[in-house]
Amino acid sequence: MNRRDFLRSATLGVAVAEISSHLPESLFANPYGKPVGLQLYTLRDQLEKDVAGTIRQVADIGYKDVEIYSLYGKSPAEFQKILQDNGISASSGHYLLPDVKSNWDRRVEEAKTLGLKYMVNAILAPAERTSFEDYKRLVEVFNKAGETAHSAGIQFCYHNHNFEFTKYGDTTAYGYLLKTLDAKLVQFEMDCFWVTHAGEDPVSYFRGYPGRFRLLHIKDMKDKPAPTHELDAKMGLFAPVGQGTIDWKRIFAAARQGGMQHYYVEQDYCEQAPIEAVKLSYQYLSKLQA
Fold first, then answer.
1. What count of other Cβ atoms lies within 10 Å of the Cβ of residue 85?
2. pTM of the prediction?
3. What domains lie within the chain, and their CATH numbers?
4. Cβ(55)–Cβ(88) under 8 Å?
């Protein structure tokens, strides 16, 4: 390439970037070219029986990125090698509060071996969230965990369900955590299903707290229920992504403002074989266009 052609190409590149920055968000509904991720919790029963075989099936579907829920008896190095052998990387992992409180240094070292970029508090057990005071006490715990992870080059995040949207006076636990946790140390993994299940709008949170939602859980809902703040007893509302009622184009169009870096398919309970459910979700998301 001579100098004239180089300058022409460079000028064209700048022009395209400038035009792109002013295009409507809806044109970016395809998830920005990011790999479709999978939260491995969906395949927990299969993984308990056969880790390597299940991961091979995940790779065959097309998934290149996963979020870890458990190592299923493998060491971090063994689990990481199984992923690597199948062309998969793990960008995130889920952890429970007892680990965050008392085994965190060890978990961070394991996460480094696994190559994780994110460590996420997965869920609060009922006994850990009996009152608003419990959430207040967690601020110091999570900020401290975030600082330890940050020192290792890993981002700590909080994953929601629907109980965080219970009202406490003029706020919710979710709103309180968003406003109170150190934004540098603690980011959020938004579970779009549970936000919707609670009668809230994921997009309004992206706009109200731009940049706070580095990770998304993508799971679909058969029908929109009346808002409730406890887990659905029958767990019969889950559907493969694209076969439910959640408007994914709208969510992904706004996800850039929310700060999305990775997103993961998850289906807590499946009517068909879980591997078939995650295949349907992958097929939908990999072709999603505005």
1. 12
2. 0.87
3. 31-286 (3.20.20.150)
4. yes
Q: Is the pLDDT of residue 254 over 50?
A: yes
Residues 196, 237: contact at Cβ < 8 Å?
Answer: no
Q: Say whether 156 sits in a helix, a strand or coil.
A: strand
- Strand, coil or helix: what is 241? coil
Six-digit token string for 282: 């992958």
201 alpha-carbon distance from chain centroid: 16
Write the CA distances from 41 to 173, 210, 224, integer angstroms. 25, 28, 23
| DSSP-assigned letters across all residues of 107-130 | HHHHHHHHT-SEEEE----GGG-S
**CA–CA separation, 181 and 174 (whole Å):** 11
pLDDT tens column, 163-194:
999 999 999 999 999 999 999 999 999 999 99
Cβ contacts of residue 33 below 8 Å, gap of 6+? Answer: none
DSSP reduced 3-state for 218? strand
**Residues constituting the chain:** 290
Q: What phi and psi, each to the nearest 5 degrees, are found at residue 168?
A: -125, 95
Measured distance CA(232)–CA(229) in Å, rounded: 9
- 80, 57 contact by CB (below 8 A): no
